Amino acid sequence: MAARGQPIDSLRELRRLVPSILKEINADPALALRAAANPLLALEELGYSLTPALSAEAERRVRFPKATRERMAVLEKQVFEAAGEHFDLRAPAEVERVLFTKLELPRPQIEPLRAAQRAPAPQQSETLMARLAVSLGREFVDPLGGLAGRHPVMQPLLEYRRLEASEPPLAAPALYERIRRGEVKLPIVRIRGRLKSETAEGDVK
Fold it and tell me: Dihedral of CA 27/29/30/36: which sign?
């Protein structure tokens, strides 16, 4: 059993702790706001620590349904096989290195957005969810789309990136800190927690 301050290294152990964690979070409305934006950073704030592997897995399970996660795992394997190496598909520098340095694909020309396509500047009164919707956009336009068909790595990589963009990301540390300081508001006073395994699902209010 992992004690507070010691890294939690299994989804089973994390799920066991969920009821007590949610009780602690929901006792503090301000913390509940931050947890709604990024539950993993809220865990750190409470003194819990996840191993890097579990943190990545927990983030996937928070953001994506099972079918999407499984498809992304298949696509990730296909990308690695086509590229001839493993790399972080979410790190722009790594993607650029593999595509443009190793595989020597041409850098795509990215045209500026037309005025009608640009997202409006966020207003001070916007909620966090509205800000995330603006930044993500309803339709994901991949700047790498022009490389479709140029190499076997592109088809699975483009589909992976589309799925990755299909759900809002967890709030980055800088945004989480802004929420902590009260600079960004969310209309949330209580949260629910759900951690999924391949065979079972826990749902706690």
Answer: positive
- pLDDT per residue over 19-56, tens digit each? 999 999 989 988 988 898 899 999 999 999 999 889 98
What is the distance between the alpha carbons of residues 50 and 178, in angstroms, rounded to a whole number?
Answer: 23
Asked whether the whole model's pTM tops 0.85, one would answer no
Question: Of 77, 73, 80, 110, which is closest to residue 94 (Cα–Cα)?
Answer: 80
Provide the token pair at 93: 């520098």
- If DSSP codes are grouped into helix, strand and coil, which group holds residue 194? strand
List of long-range contacts for 94-99, beta carbons under 8 Å, 24+ apart: 95/144, 95/157, 98/153, 99/144, 99/147, 99/151, 99/153
Dist. CA 23–CA 20, nearest whole Å = 5
